[in-house]
From TrEMBL:
PANTHER family: ADP-GLUCOSE PHOSPHORYLASE. Residues 144-329 form the DUF4921 domain. Gene3D superfamilies: HIT-like (3.30.428.10). One of its GO terms (biological process) is galactose metabolic process. Pfam families: DUF4921. Its EC number is 2.7.7.12. Keywords: Nucleotidyltransferase, Transferase. It comes from the Archaea. This is UDP-glucose--hexose-1-phosphateuridylyltransfera se. The active site is at residue 173. One of its GO terms (molecular function) is UDP-glucose:hexose-1-phosphate uridylyltransferase activity.
Amino acid sequence: MGSGYMSQIRKHYFLDEYCIIAPGRGKRPSDYLGDVLEKETSDCVFCKGHEEKTPPATAVYKEGQILQDSEKFRIKDWDIRCFPNLYPALIQNPAKVSNTEFQAMEGYGFHEVIVETPKHSRQIPDFSDNEILLLMKAYKEQVNYYQSLEKIKYVSLFKNKGERAGASIAHTHSQLLALPVMPPTLKREIQTIKSSETCPYCNILVKEYGSNRLLYRNEEFIVIAPYCSKVPYELWILPQRHIHHISDFTDDLLRFLGDAIQVSLSVLSNSIGDLPYNYMFYQLNDDPEYHFNVKIQPVTSIAAGFEKNTGIYINTMAPEKAVEQLKTNLL
Ligand SMILES: [Zn+2]
Ligand SMILES: [Zn+2]
């Protein structure tokens, strides 16, 4: 390789994690173009009018109210609709575990789908201010509800968009898994945070405010491409004030969070097209030392042998380059 070729092993801001930034030569944005969504609406079970094809909704957001379906009656003309996943990973009444070779526990928990809009081809960047705010409010409500249940240790809230990001249905939706165990990644992270003198995320804010990895800021949030981006165009959304959980968010904060998510997704789609992505909420309801954040990871390749072997990701686009490019589409 010529000496101009860049390859860096970068360490995570504060965790014992690494990524390798090794930009592929000549790789263009169009090389990342993602999969095409099927636009068929005739048999989409998430579309309005098809409510009978899903389990009864546990929460229906309609005209400022939160309602529930009954077994026999499905509410129509909703704004957001939440119901149990048809193929849940965890269930409310799992069979008792007996006599296992190693450790096992019952697969107790909840697995919910949040259909973000009744309209099939509408995406988050198309949402009005009211629609995005309602989605953030629904996130808060649903997370709070499951978090308050006995035996639930963590509520994972995430969105898979596009087939290669794990979505089996094209109609825009998020998912929530309420778990009876604490995810090891968060356990490790909070341990590291507790052993730090000051909040590592607050430190990131100070350092990244003026950096060439800052993509966007509104009154309450900043959006950065992290120094240790695992994948091309990875973005982190951080509240500027130290706040640990969405349950503490005022409507104003929810509005600015919605804005940060919407701007990020719009800029991504304007820059690199309809790329599949995941976004994940990170928060701890009972630990004020945690710093709430949302991570967006476009799916440009699949984790392969090296990543699985080492936990180290090879990223072909430096975050500074990603921001430089994304900024040209920031209005
Ligand atoms: Zn649909
Ligand atoms: Zn903080």
